[in-house]
Amino acid sequence: MLMTADTQGGVWTVALELAGALSRAGVATVLAIMGGPLSPAARAAAAAIPGLELVESAYRLEWMDDPWDDVAAAGDWLLDLEERVRPDLVHLNGYCHAALPFRAPRVVVAHSCVLSWWRAVHRRPAPVRYERYRARVAEGLRAADAVVAPSAAMLSALAGEYGALGLGRGHVIPHARDRRRFAPAPKEPFVFAAGRLWDEAKNLAALERVAPHLAWPVLVAGSDVAAGGVGRRAGESLCSLGWVDEPELTWWMSRAAIYASPARYAPFGMATLEAALSGCALVVGDLPSLREIWRDAAVYVPADDPRALHAALDHLIRDVARREALGALARRRAVRFSPRAMARRYLDVYALALAARPPAPRRVCPPSSPSPCGTPCE
């Protein structure tokens, strides 16, 4: 299988978890990387997966500012990769490239999108400067043999922004994390949060407002520099840890008594899953996607209500029994989102895509004719 991924956040994490689970099921993956260089730790994690081949590039991603020359060049690169790899299926963790003339069926995974992000954060449709993005994403969605989202809420958002996907083409497969990477330790008196400080969807500014009025400190791990180099630093009321690698992140989560994510937009929320696996009591944004995922295993607060956020955190700080019960409930819920279960559901979707559109036949040249593409024909 040929799979695309990027280095800008949770997509890489999900891609690696899925590739590892697919490898254990006997599926080899070629992972085509875009968006920037991999860290040594990320490259080492990929190298540990049997049968996984990494192919790296630095092409800009479709949601970045003015990316279209890079998107076109990345498209040529992906078609060349498919010609070399000859995969049974192309798994795209992005939208636009699904419209390319791949021979193999293509499955698109909708981790998030600019238009639904904008609507959730700014409470209005995205401005006209995103019309080209809208058109290209819609084109990719129409061309896909199957579309996967990590929540039904995200699948519904896609239909609202780009039009109905059509009967039987949309599928919900939650993201997953290996629970062996995360384990509760004796809990300590602090509130923890993780996320990009510059991303308004994370709404970490709400924690800045309530932190001075809490009995516990609020620690935040995450980059303060966006992909374009623009940043936003944490206020003095938060204890900013900056960007931390996975081992350090898991260390902090294992000890945090409460994890707070008052998000305005979260199609799934990988960090929240990691915190739940670490046994944290969850206080999260009151979003359809998060209620769908966590049900009764979290406390929900409106993103624009700092008083509700303060009350929820203050209550859990004071109520040890409720806090511990909620942390245990979150972990029991989180272990359901396993890489094995995720891979099994993806294999079902792959089978449907393959059955709906078998791969195009390879070109076979007459024995006496030269190969028109310059490579030996079968």
TrEMBL record:
Keywords: Transferase. One of its GO terms (molecular function) is glycosyltransferase activity. Pfam families: Glyco_trans_1_4, Glyco_transf_4. GO terms for biological process: lipopolysaccharide biosynthetic process. InterPro entries: Glyco_trans_4-like_N. CDD domains: GT4_PimA-like. Residues 9-178 form the Glycosyltransferase subfamily 4-like N-terminal domain. Residues 362-378 have a biased composition (Low complexity). It comes from the Bacteria. Residues 359-378 are annotated as: Disordered. The keyword Transferase applies. PANTHER family: GLYCOSYLTRANSFERASE WBBK-RELATED. This is Glycosyltransferase. It comes from Sorangium cellulosum (strain So ce56).
